[in-house]
Design goal:
about 20% strand, about 80 residues, 2 helices, two-stranded antiparallel sheet
Length: about 80
């Protein structure tokens, strides 16, 4: 099974749970739109996805991406040697 399929299996129930407690509703084609979105993130050099496994089963995932800070922050350069 491909990692992206496992992420889909974990992601969809999580989105349904979030929609149940938020002011937003899910679109009708959530699975297809979600797959397209997550596949684009997997090929994006500024994002990363980790899968969590227990006893050879996928039990969770986390994703992160590099973003520029909001314009309210002043950039300070820090150099490490």
């Amino acid at each position: 099974m491909k990692p992206s399929s496992n992420i889909d299996d974990l992601w969809l129930p999580a989105q349904r749970e979030m929609a149940a407690v938020s002011e937003y509703t899910l679109i009708d084609d959530i699975r297809e739109t979600g797959l397209t979105y997550r596949h684009s993130r997997l090929s994006d050099d500024d994002s990363i996805t980790y899968l969590a496994c227990r006893d050879h089963h996928f039990i969770g995932y986390v994703g992160a991406e590099v973003q520029t800070p909001p314009p309210i922050f002043q950039q300070v350069r820090v150099y490490f040697s």
